[in-house]
């Protein structure tokens, strides 16, 4: 049964995050031939609407207000609820990001709707969308369906492939000015603790280090490898606790959950808390001097040895391969 499905796009530093396009692909499944509406919120986001259409949205609604320049719970909640009242969608999808995880349950509560969080797949059964999501730190999966009322779901980045971009695709773009009041929080300034580069939660290649890197300087060879491959650098909680890097890089149960195409676990023992954040990576390469390290149990490829010798050799070999292509 065709459904009107609303997608909340996510903007960072004036650009759409890739999970927005992946969410549109999920929305196409949920809509089952119905209309997919992209929604963009910000101070001025009209220039990004065309991208959502090129990736599959049928039309886009931009919601503007100075208080939407940076994310705050109150402002975004008020703005999205106004769009819900206007569009009356059957379903709403967001990325399972810091914003999506904060906003989705609040919308579900206000709209009295069911919520499926952290979905990694969606398919139709008897004309109704069924979501798959990991449980028990990724050790098992459950399938969830909203039986009645409006549907809300958050989509984990890097799991549902975005549709092919079609520059020739067109659609209607409309704009509304949100009415926002009684804000409990305002953003005065944003200071990023982590350096720029590839977004860790959306990276296709991640080079992660643990306590085995021994120091902040120990991350430099990892950064070099990540830069060569166009990837991002991550870390275990142990490395963050030891002050080798910022907690913004932490991957694990209490950090970011990532699912890249290729994950390098370097000097990481493989504690269960870390595995919860990366075990669903498509290919895992472990480098550790301890042959009994638990990380080798989940790795597709393992190298036993000194990471300070292996990583530079691996980087140089990959550089030669890339140059020859």
TrEMBL record:
| Keyword Signal carried by entry | no
- Give the residues annotated as coiled coil: none
Per its Swiss-Prot or TrEMBL entry, what cofactor is needed?
Answer: FAD
* Source domain of life: Bacteria
Annotated Electron transfer flavoprotein alpha/beta-subunit N-terminal domain ranges read 5-187
GO process annotations (BP): fatty acid beta-oxidation using acyl-CoA dehydrogenase
User: From the Swiss-Prot or TrEMBL record, what is one GO molecular function term?
Assistant: electron transfer activity
**Residues involved in FAD binding:** 211, 236-237, 250-254, 267-274, 288
Assigned protein family: Belongs to the ETF alpha-subunit/FixB family.
This protein is called: Electron transfer flavoprotein subunit alpha/FixB family protein
């Amino acid at each position: 049964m065709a459904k009107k499905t609303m997608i909340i796009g996510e903007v960072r530093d004036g650009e759409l995050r890739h999970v927005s396009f992946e969410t549109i692909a999920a929305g196409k499944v949920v809509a089952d031939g119905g209309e997919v509406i992209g929604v963009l919120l910000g101070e001025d986001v009209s220039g990004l609407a065309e991208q959502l259409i090129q990736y599959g949205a049928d039309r886009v609604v931009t919601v503007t207000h100075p208080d939407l320049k940076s994310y705050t719970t109150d402002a975004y909640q008020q703005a999205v609820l106004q769009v819900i009242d206007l569009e009356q969608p059957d379903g709403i999808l967001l990325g399972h990001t810091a914003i999506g995880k904060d906003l989705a349950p609040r919308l579900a509560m206000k709209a009295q709707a069911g919520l499926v969080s952290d979905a990694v797949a969606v398919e139709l059964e008897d004309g109704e969308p069924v979501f798959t999501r990991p449980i028990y730190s990724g050790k098992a999966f459950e399938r969830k369906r909203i039986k009645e009322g409006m549907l809300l779901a958050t989509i984990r980045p890097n799991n549902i492939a975005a549709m092919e971009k079609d520059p020739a695709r067109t659609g209607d773009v409309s704009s509304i000015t949100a009415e926002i009041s009684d804000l409990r929080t305002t953003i005065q300034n944003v200071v990023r603790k982590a350096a720029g580069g590839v977004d860790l939660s959306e990276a296709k290649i991640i080079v992660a280090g643990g306590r085995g890197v021994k120091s902040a300087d120990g991350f430099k060879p990892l950064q070099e490898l990540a830069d060569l491959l166009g990837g991002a650098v991550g870390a275990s909680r142990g490395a963050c606790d030891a002050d080798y890097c910022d907690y913004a890089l932490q991957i694990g149960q209490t950090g970011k959950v990532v699912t890249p195409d290729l994950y390098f676990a370097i000097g990481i023992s493989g504690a269960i808390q870390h595995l919860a954040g990366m075990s669903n990576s498509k290919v895992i390469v472990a480098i550790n001097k301890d042959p009994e390290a638990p990380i080798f149990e989940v790795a597709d490829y393992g190298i036993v040895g000194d990471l300070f010798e292996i990583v530079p050799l691996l980087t140089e070999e990959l550089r030669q391969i890339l140059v020859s292509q």
